[in-house]
Amino acid sequence: MNPDDIFSAENVKQLLDRWTESLAQVIESMTDQRPEVKWQAARGTASELGRGQEYLWWEQPFQAAPQVTAWVAAPRATWEQAGALTLKAAGLETVETTEAKNTWVEILGQSLAVMARSIGSLLGREVTTEAGTERSPDLPPGEWAAVTITFAGAPEGAAPKEPPLLMGLSPQLVTLVTAPPPNDAEASGQVSTVQEAGAGSAGRSAPVSRTMELLLEVDLPVSISFGKAKVPMKDVLKLTTGSIVELDRGINEMVEVLVNHCLIARGEVVVVEGNYGVRIQEIASRQDRLRSLR
């Protein structure tokens, strides 16, 4: 199959666009530098496309269906640079290769979690990542998304010096997002119907979506943020029992209620039958919720 046949499919393009965008966002959040991340379809073996460079492979299965998997092959120079920039931004002056590698795997894991949510969005149901592993595919695909990551300071329009990062998709994943099973298509169709009904007339109530009914049963982690602090890595290493870390919130200020790491509300701390609780005082605005996701 021609790579253009796979990567020209609208759902596959959408999936990769969201993933490259999330990869740039994750790197920016960790390094304070937003790289330019672009992808294009490519054909050949990893060795040919990588010009013989050493690759770090990562296999990421998704909890959507059997053998729904993505593989990411990162050139050594790419993962070393991303890992080193992250750790140096955290205050480390010297970075070991193993530390840079583990940091890259964390960056990759966060971006692939976004890809899982994108798959779920296309299918109309929740999809999460399974445990990934450092492994290349048994039967490497012949078609790839070749991804270039360019950090600030590179000459505009200059050709990348390093080989591209490669992403391969299993045939099962491609089939799933381009031709969803009937139940998934029906769920997606109902979501579209609800959206169209809501947009078309404010006076009529939209039909209840079966997808929304499923989402109502999803468990989400709820946490309470008493405050935050930025501490240099060298001071973190000095923390011992009895150490005090000063937070950025006063004792009379409201605490934040986070659902799935997203700000939802603010309130005051109370005690309920010997346990801590929070009495909701205000619901976060849409702008506050969006800012908390950055």
Widest sheet, order of strands:
1-4-5-3-2
Number of domains: 2
Tell me the quaternary state: single chain
Per DSSP E runs of 2 or more residues, the count of β-strands stands at 9
| Most strands sheet | 5 strands, antiparallel
**Known CATH architecture of the largest domain:** 3-Layer(aba) Sandwich
By CATH, the superfamily of the largest domain comes out as: CheC-like
What series of H and E elements makes up the topology?
HHEHEEHHEEHHHEHEEEH
Summing up helix and strand content along with how strands pair, one would put the structural category as: alpha+beta
Would you mind describing this structure in some detail?
- With 294 residues, this protein is of the alpha+beta class.
- The chain has 2 domains: 3-178, 3-Layer(aba) Sandwich (Chemotaxis protein chec), CATH 3.40.1550.10; 219-293, Roll (Surface presentation of antigens (SPOA)), CATH 2.30.330.
- The chain is 40% helix and 22% strand.
- The chain has helices at 3-7, 10-31, 46-49, 76-89, 97-123, 171-178, 182-200, 210-215, 233-236, 286-293; strands at residues 36-43, 55-61, 69-75, 143-150, 165-169, 222-225, 255-259, 262-272, 275-283.
- The strands form 2 sheets. A 5-stranded antiparallel sheet has the order 1-4-5-3-2. The chain has a 4-stranded antiparallel sheet with strand order 6-7-8-9.
- The chain is globular, with a radius of gyration of 22 Å.
- The protein starts with a helix and ends with a helix.
